[in-house]
């Protein structure tokens, strides 16, 4: 039996199930403390495996394309925050203040790695450059995101620690395991390549653990009493507007700057998306524990919208590129070859 096209992917269904389960059976007390330690270990393992997986050769291959990387980084860490602030008077009435704080947090996050590369490949873009841009965005986000949050997210849900303390916590929890994975890549890199299912399991499993813990804490603090259904509907509109503007502006700017088609595709997919895998652990470090649920809710929704929209774009652009190659081959082969068709 074919899977219905409108049915979300399995991971999204697991996310929805996790939120429902946390709403009905939230963890608390000593069990919550133990669960928090388990979550920290899972996050450290996740970034360790990502470090071991990342190919240095692919990064070097795309690292020289500095103009493309600069556009992607400016889109990720400048365009998005500016859009979030500029749209606040128009869009914030559609949601609660806590949810819009989550939207602003979403705007400060780095780009995705796996899906940016995958969509670039499907659409026939510059894959080596996508690997480099997405990876650089993920690493720089460890330092840039906390600083941006301190500037644009003026909300009581933010933790009271200084930005430098927050950066240090993120470095310990995310960057140190990542570097350890990179250092051990010569020993375990081949095993990681042969067992990609392990990375996927840890990747998705760690996110589900953080989401369950975050929403448990938020439910214990009365999350669903403070977020009406109308605000959830408004959040869909806010995320859709934000993604549409990001896609349109990255398309426009990449064309105006004279990038070729492959580079334009890379800029659009790397510069318009936000990382759930990096955002959820960062929210756990940056924000007070009771506020993390409301903060990550916009990110979870944006993640699903960006996957559906970018998947459709990638397939459309990839098919168009294939058709173009076919026409070029037909013209090159001459009238006789066309007649034989």
TrEMBL record:
Top-level taxon in the UniProt lineage: Bacteria
GO CC annotations on file: plasma membrane
Pfam family, one: SBF_like
Swiss-Prot/TrEMBL keywords: Membrane, Transmembrane, Transmembrane helix
Record carries keyword Coiled coil: no
Presence of the UniProt keyword Membrane in the record: yes
Parts of the chain that traverse the membrane: 12-29, 35-54, 66-87, 99-119, 131-154, 166-185, 197-215, 227-253
InterPro entries recorded: Na+/solute_symporter_sf, Put_Na-Bile_cotransptr
PANTHER family (alphabetical): SODIUM_BILE ACID COTRANSPORTER 7 (PTHR18640:SF5), SOLUTE CARRIER FAMILY 10 MEMBER 7 (PTHR18640)
The name this protein goes by in its record: Bile acid:sodium symporter
Source species: Paraburkholderia acidicola
Upper taxonomic lineage: Bacteria, Pseudomonadati, Pseudomonadota, Betaproteobacteria, Burkholderiales
């Amino acid at each position: 039996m074919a899977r219905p096209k409108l049915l979300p992917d399995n991971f999204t269904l697991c996310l929805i199930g996790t939120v429902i389960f946390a709403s009905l059976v939230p963890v608390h007390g000593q069990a919550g403390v133990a669960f928090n330690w388990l979550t920290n270990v899972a996050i450290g393992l996740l970034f360790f495996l990502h470090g071991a997986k990342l190919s240095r050769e692919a990064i070097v291959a795309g690292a020289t394309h500095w103009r493309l990387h600069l556009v992607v980084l400016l889109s990720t860490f400048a365009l998005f925050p500016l859009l979030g602030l500029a749209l606040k008077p128009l869009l914030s009435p559609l949601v609660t203040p806590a949810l819009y704080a989550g939207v602003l947090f979403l705007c400060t996050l780095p780009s995705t790695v796996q899906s940016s590369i995958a969509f670039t490949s499907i659409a026939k873009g510059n894959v080596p450059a996508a690997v480099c841009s997405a990876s650089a965005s993920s690493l720089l986000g460890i330092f840039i995101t906390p600083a941006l949050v301190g500037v644009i997210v003026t909300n009581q849900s933010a933790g009271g620690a200084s930005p430098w303390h927050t950066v240090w916590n993120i470095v310990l929890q995310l960057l140190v395991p990542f570097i350890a994975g990179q250092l051990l890549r010569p020993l375990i890199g081949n095993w990681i390549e042969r067992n990609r299912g392990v990375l996927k399991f840890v990747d998705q499993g760690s996110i589900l653990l953080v989401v369950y813990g975050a929403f448990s804490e938020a439910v214990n603090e009365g999350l669903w009493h403070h977020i009406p259904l109308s605000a959830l509907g408004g959040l869909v509109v806010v995320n859709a507007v934000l993604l549409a503007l990001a896609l349109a502006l990255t398309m426009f700017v990449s064309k105006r700057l004279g990038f070729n088609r492959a580079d334009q595709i890379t800029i659009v997919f790397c510069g318009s998306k936000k990382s759930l895998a990096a955002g959820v652990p960062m929210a756990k470090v940056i924000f007070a524990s009771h506020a993390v649920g409301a903060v990550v809710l916009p990110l979870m929704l944006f993640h699903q919208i960006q996957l559906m929209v970018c998947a459709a774009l990638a397939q459309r652009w990839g098919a168009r590129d294939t058709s173009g190659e076919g026409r070029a081959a037909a013209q090159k082969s001459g009238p006789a070859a066309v007649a034989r068709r």
